[in-house]
Amino acid sequence: MRTLSTFVAASALTIGLATASQAQTPVNPLLPTTGTREIGLSGTLNFEPSTDLALSVKYGRFQNQKLEFGGYGTILDPERGDSTYSVGAFADYHFPGASPLLPFIGLSAGYANTRNDGTFAYGVQGGVKYFVNSNVAATGQLVYRDYTQSGVGNEFRLELGLAVYLR
Predict the structure, then answer these.
(1) Contact of 138 with 40, CB cutoff 8 Å
(2) Quick one: how far is CA 121 from the chain centroid?
(3) Fold of 2-166
(4) Residues 106-163: pLDDT tens digits?
(5) Residue 19: helix, strand or coil by DSSP?
(6) Rounded to two decimals, what is the model's pTM?
(7) Within 13 A of 91's CA, how many CA atoms are on the CB side?
(8) Distance linking the first and last C-alpha atoms of the chain
(9) Higher-confidence residue: 125 or 4?
(10) Are the C-beta atoms of residues 50 and 154 closer than 8 Å to each other?
């Protein structure tokens, strides 16, 4: 829990400093604007508590060039009989600039079915989106999830995928 508190405090400081420093930075026209919708599909490699593979989907809407709200769904290794899934909501804060590279940090909360037993999950994520054109981006993010159920290990994973943007 201490690691999560430190990460959230560092993220808040980063947002404040980045917002102040980007006041005069021109924004790349490829990047999303207010009302842009994002549909993403990614493959996931979990590092903790195991090295399972997963598939994640997300849908989000940009409230402005920096703030996006949406939902996600993940299914873990459906070939196993005890597959795990999660659904929830996220909020991501982006740092737009002149480059087609769009870094972001965010928070999430939702429900997870961990080995046929449900629990509340919350977490943080951070990553980048690289815009190939105004409608497609390659995505990568690191995700940390904390589960409230005792006996369920926290999760740390890497997600790589593609996103389509509807303007």
Answers:
(1) no
(2) 14
(3) Porin (2.40.160)
(4) 999 999 886 667 889 999 999 999 999 999 999 999 999 888 876 666 788 899 999 9
(5) helix
(6) 0.81
(7) 6
(8) 39
(9) 125
(10) no
